[in-house]
Amino acid sequence: MTERTLVLIKPDGVARRFVGEILSRVERKGLSITALEMKTADEALAGQHYAEHLGRPFYPGLIEFITSGPLVAAVLEGPRAIAAFRQLAGGTDPVEKAVPGSIRADLALDGQQNLVHGSDSVESAEREIALWFPELARG
Ligand code: IDP
């Protein structure tokens, strides 16, 4: 079943010049990039994106990080795109959770600055696509 998912290459990924590396892994996996934009998130957008984490101890630092510089937002499409990208990304903590071969395990060390975001469900994907690419919102 074809799905779509919202992916961010976070500001650390752009600063470390991993945009090509990460998009290359996406394409090698067989996912299609159907929207792609570089932008800098303001606090309002970052807060909406990470609304589920409001109140967590790491939330203020996360918002500061995500708004700290340009990032790349993308919509990927393909069979099981949500799970497929999360497999490519690896677990949240690049050392404790991400498996070798994943983007985070291979290229990151830090539990916050972990290079990428990928939607975790169909509902999250549709909510996040509507935030980052309002012109692609459905319903
Ligand atoms: P995910 O990005 O793997 O889906 P989430 O639990 O949704 O993980 O957390 C969102 C983001 O918040 C993470 O990717 C990471 O950047 C940051 N984060 C999560 N947990 C921590 C933490 O314990 N310390 C610092 N940052 C965290």
- In the predicted model, the low-confidence regions spanning at least 5 consecutive residues are none
Overall geometric form:
globular
Mean pLDDT: 98
Strand content: 15-25%
Count of helices? Answer: 7
Name given to the CATH architecture: 2-Layer Sandwich
Strand segment tally? 4
The neighbouring-strand order within the major sheet is: 2-3-1-4
Question: Which hetero compounds are present in the coordinates?
Answer: inosine-5'-diphosphate
Name of the CATH homologous superfamily: Nucleoside diphosphate kinase-like domain
- Summed up, the domain count is 1
Rounded to the nearest angstrom, the distance between the terminal CA atoms is: 19 Å
The major β-sheet equals: 4 strands, antiparallel
Radius of gyration from CA coordinates = 14 Å
Q: In terms of structural class, how would the helical and strand content be classed?
A: alpha+beta
Reading off the top of the CATH hierarchy, the class is best stated as Alpha Beta
| Relative helix content | 40-55%
**How are helices and strands ordered from N to C?**
EHHEHHEHHEH
CATH topology: Alpha-Beta Plaits
Keywords: ATP-binding, Cytoplasm, Kinase, Magnesium, Metal-binding, Nucleotide metabolism, Nucleotide-binding, Phosphoprotein, Transferase
Subunit structure: Homotetramer.
Protein name: Nucleoside diphosphate kinase
Cofactor: Mg(2+)
